[in-house]
Amino acid sequence: MKLTSPLIVTGMHRSGTTLLVKILEKNGVFFGAYQDNNSESIFFQRLNRWLISFNNSYWDNPKSFDTLDNINLDFLISKCNRTIQNKILTLYYFGLKNIFLNNSFSSYDLPWGWKDPLNTFTLDIWSKIFPCISIINIVRNPIDVSCSLINRQSKMKSHDLKNLKKYFNSLVPILSINKGAVFRSFEINTIDDCLILYKKYQDKIKLNNLKNIKQINIKYEDLVNNTEDELIKIYSFCGINNFNLKQDSKLIDKNIANKYNNLDISFDSKLLDLISYDK
Asked: What's the pTM value of the predicted model, to 2 decimals?
């Protein structure tokens, strides 16, 4: 069965992937009927989490599938293919109205895709399922990413503590749910932890750039500071012709690029040197 070609957004957490989805959705790209708070398609998010469980990794400790042998790789690809061809399961992506519309990944004729930072590592599999896949990689200053990630961690920790006494959460540990009902990472506690994780995503994006896949790299700072030029670049890559630059530019907060500039932050400068990010 020939599948239509998706647009996948990848990048380190807190790098601007959600902002990209909001901009693209405004211009007609469908990213799934059911999304989480970070604009990630629940359908593909769960598939990605299922995939990375086979190499004992998670978003905060990701591993590549590059070393997976062909037999196991073909097995995972076959399982994913069966899932995305299941009309009942794909309701998680297309929504309940699809019962009447009967859309599928082989017939959907509008621009579509999904966003998930884990795409950075599962691309080795998705590119074989969707050979004509298109990728937008977005990167951001590593210190800004790290500060934002630590800030999110703090919020998630508070959320976890509030949910601790809820009845359903007492049942989750015995269910087949990977880290279910626990939102924060136990791996991310300092800026250095964030920088180490950032380097893993950065290195994988660089390796992905070497693959024969249609892709574009976007810098978050360029999107904020040179908004219209960057939007035109993105729209050209995606084949979007009807857009309103003035209206789309309003989605971007010009102040957020300097949000963490005045913070007194402690970190290992050697880790930052290894990343070598050009502002």
From this structure: 0.89
